[in-house]
């Protein structure tokens, strides 16, 4: 069996990018080229996002050079139609590669999420509007794969190194059970 795909899902600003120490494909590497062409409100935006995402994932899934790489993907997908379709692309790539998907849902309280969202280290082209974040948290639920290969971690008061260790331990546990 190929090494796993580790899919880290959480609301914008929760701290997804600070955790993994592996081959990381941050969701903004897929978003930013599309955002340079289309605003999120334009009808072509989601179509191009899908093409970019599928192209990158297909390349990863079929590459002989990358066959031994453990991939960590960060995302913020809800369980709505658009979110489910995006996650389906990761599932398809994992199946093509023969990799299990290990799902990590990162959560933190709304107040902490707002503080993290405003951190200067988040970089440009990322959501930084607290009102939009709070609306997302109120109206959208994060996508869950469900099952034994998924863990939800509340990182509100958790040091980064401890959260990373929890993820590592969970990946080890799931990998040894499979």
Task: Briefly characterize the structure.
The protein has 178 residues and is an alpha/beta fold. It has six helices and five strands; from the N terminus they run ββααβαβααβα.
How would you explain this protein's 3D organization?
- With 178 residues, the chain is of the alpha/beta class.
- Helices cover 44% and strands 15% of the residues.
- It has helices at 28-35, 45-62, 81-97, 110-117, 130-139, 160-177; strands at 5-10, 23-25, 71-75, 101-107, 150-154.
- Strands 2-3-1-4-5 form a five-stranded parallel sheet.
Number of helices: 6
Structural class label: alpha/beta
How many E-type strands? 5
The N- and C-terminal alpha carbons lie at a distance of 9 Å
Order of helices and strands: EEHHEHEHHEH
Quaternary structure of the protein: single chain
Largest sheet: 5 strands, parallel
Query: Mean of the pLDDT scores?
Result: 90
Helix content: 40-55%
Q: What strand line-up does the widest sheet have?
A: 2-3-1-4-5
Low-confidence stretches: none
SS strand fraction: 5-15%
Q: What overall geometry do the principal axes of the alpha carbons give?
A: globular
The Rg value, from CA coordinates, equals 16 Å
